[in-house]
Amino acid sequence: MVFIQSYCEANTSISHTWVDAGIAPCFYFTLVPTILLSISFFLGTVHCICYQKYGTSMEPKFIPRSRLYGFQLALTVLLLLQFLGGMVWRAASSGELPGYVVLYCCFSTLGWAWALALLRMERWRVPLMDRTRGHSTALLVFWALAFSAENLAFVSWYSPHWWWDLETTQKEVQFALWLIRYVCSGLLFFIGLKAPGLPRRPYMLLINEDERDVENSAQSLLGRTEENQSTWQGFRKKVRLLVPYMWPRGNIILQVLVLLCLGLLGVERAINVFVPIYYKNIVNELTDGSSWPTVASTVGIYVGLKFLQGGGAGASGFVSNMRSFLWIRVQQFTNRVVQVRLFAHLHSLSLRWHLGRKTGDVLRSIDRGTSSINSLLSYIVFSIFPTIADIVISIIYFVTYFNAWFGLIVFICMTLYLTLTIIITEWRTKYRRDMNLQDNAAKSKAVDSLLNFETVKYYNAENYEVSRFEDAILKYQASEWKTQASLAFLNQTQNVIIGSGLLAGSLLCAYFVTEGKFQVGDFVLFGTYIIQLYTPLNWFGTYYRMIQNSFIDMESMFKLFEEEEEVKDDVNAGNLLYKLGRVEFDNVYFSYINGKEILRDVSFTVLPGQTVALVGPSGSGKSTIIRLLFRFYNVQGGCIRIDGQDISKVKQTSLRAHIGVVPQDTVLFNDTIRENIRYGRITSSDREVEEAALAADIHDKIMTFPEGYDTQVGERGLKLSGGEKQRVAIARTILKAPQIILLDEATSALDTQTERNIQASLAKVCTNHTTIVVAHRLSTIIGADQILVISDGRIAERGRHEELLSKGGLYADMWMKQQQAHDSDSSSDTEAKDRKPEKLQPPSTSSAHQGH
């Protein structure tokens, strides 16, 4: 028969809070469930009322599936069963129940049942206003208090009324039940920080039909960034990307260096423990009157350890300096690999991405991203992990060699410090991210303005550009102020916690010294150890902030890595087997933007050695055909073949090795003329470069420059005229010696005489080569084997020059207009004086041939 004899056990009272070196169980198991139930019902009721009044039920499709959420429910149910099972077991084993046990089980069961109800309500209901990411304050506070309450049991480590000695079966069962509560409440709190199973974005945003428009307002130039998104989101993915950079595969020497650095890291942890111990020994030996040799040897060991340790935080000791020295090569490897991989990835991206990029943003993202990787590896491996290890070691040491109170003080201070640091840093993350966006915007404006300085001067817009740049700087500084102000607030909070813990521990230690329980050396040990511990801990907030900042700085770089290649080689793609150079377009469809087709059912064939010209009004799709053949884009329909091989099934490098392009807009590298021409074939000699320049009719012009072929062309070739740049591009293509030649308005920037000279040079180069020419001046392509007239993305006419003129269609109309413009420009002075308009007759085909 089970009965309640009294509220507390015999010889105890609820008024006794401290019994036999520990908290009285009756007092503890009354206070804890009462506080938890009060918090649970008060905050939970307010929370429930707000959700019922200002919330709505979520549609199931918007509720994310999460195994962690199911794990949360399972842990809560396990806790409920543990409370009920513990009370039943105690009643069955002893036949009587103290009143506080019944109260503890009932109150705890009610509190956790209410928490379970709140957890499920948050899963299915959501406030209509924008919610912050994560669980409600009510649940987080409840879980945190429950976990903290279980940690209070450590204070009674030496009390015989608790279960730590495990002397009886009853204590073993109580210890097992406590262990279940400790693990479950701790897991619920830490998993609750991640808030699995809850939407990551405001619910109204999810159901808004214009979701994309809303998100684009917070979109960076390199990708979306959500203001409330935690930088720890996708942490596993980011770390998985970082690990290969830390462990240098294939380089045994660097791998040995990494292992040595990790070994030195462990040595530092051991030294940090022994330094305060030997300092305590020195004080005790001096006060006890030990012999000089004993004191001298202890001092020698202490000084040696201090030499190895350095300034207390391992910042300038021999071991840390040696570790930093060995890590240099690993850091250089990481920096090199990241930059090279990112550079190669950017070059692998499609022309569409490069046309839409902003160079200033990309450069800033690369700079910040590569430097942040080195910072992350250094902070995580050599700062965060060692600091956490020092904290754990210190708690164990104080509990073992002092008593549980000191371990509790250190644990509470560490928990408060780390928790508030994380919460405040997460809160101020949005300011740092906004500052980066404003910084990108300011640098982008500066880069754009400087690259287009000619346009600025054409329109006297210097003051306007300066004003725009100043406005961008002001916006950046406004975000910077918020970042710095929130940082100062965080630092003050950390200082208060550290000071409070140091005060409490020092007073307690001093009290035990005055009571004769500790020696003076123990007080010195505590002060030395705790200050040694707080020094890196004071930097812990900085490390965490730097890691946060590094993750933020890496976001743009990771987005660059995530940019997918639009044009990829097939898995089984082989090399192009060039035979004769037959080019076929078979029912090709293409569009840059969905719904707006540029090419529609384009079909034509260029036989080996033939020259085909593409003409038509601007925007008709002529240059697009050139880009598709060079495979800057993939076609959306149809097929392009070279010698019967689909170019989408061969490797891009092998395809482009056989094709030479002279583009309409030539951009040169900021290097010498010689190196710009040599870019056509990197291995060519100086003589071959000069022969290509002769063929492009630019050799004589180059020799008139003071430095000849060593003349610097300037950024993007701005020191050369348009015609000179285009002739350098032609020389570059001639040097490449391709089998298929693509000329995209190759002579558009040249005067008439130079155009004729280059046409003769190109005629020699294109002899017996398959050639496709995009031309605006029809006079340059009258000798083409076939002329295709492109209009509205279709081939409107095709044939030779004479055939198209005789048809009297689009080509004939274009020819007539160009001839009228040419005759008007070359009219005589006599006609200009008379100023009498005369009706121009269209020239005949024969006369056209004679004039050109």
Automatic annotation (TrEMBL):
Gene Ontology CC annotations of this record: early endosome membrane; endoplasmic reticulum membrane; extracellular region; Golgi membrane; lysosomal membrane; melanosome membrane; mitochondrial outer membrane; multivesicular body membrane
GO molecular function: ABC-type heme transporter activity; ATP binding; ATP hydrolysis activity; heme binding
Biased composition (Polar residues): 842-852
Protein name: ATP-binding cassette sub-family B member 6
Lineage of origin: Eukaryota, Metazoa, Chordata, Craniata, Vertebrata
Broad class of the protein's primary localization: membrane
EC code(s) of this entry: 7.6.2.5
Keywords: ATP-binding, Cell membrane, Disulfide bond, Endoplasmic reticulum, Endosome, Golgi apparatus, Lysosome, Membrane, Mitochondrion, Mitochondrion outer membrane, Nucleotide-binding, Secreted, Translocase, Transmembrane, Transmembrane helix, Transport
Tree of life domain: Eukaryota
Organism: Crenichthys baileyi
Quaternary structure (record): Homodimer.
Protein encoded by which gene: ABCB6
UniProt subcellular location: Cell membrane; Early endosome membrane; Endoplasmic reticulum membrane; Endosome membrane
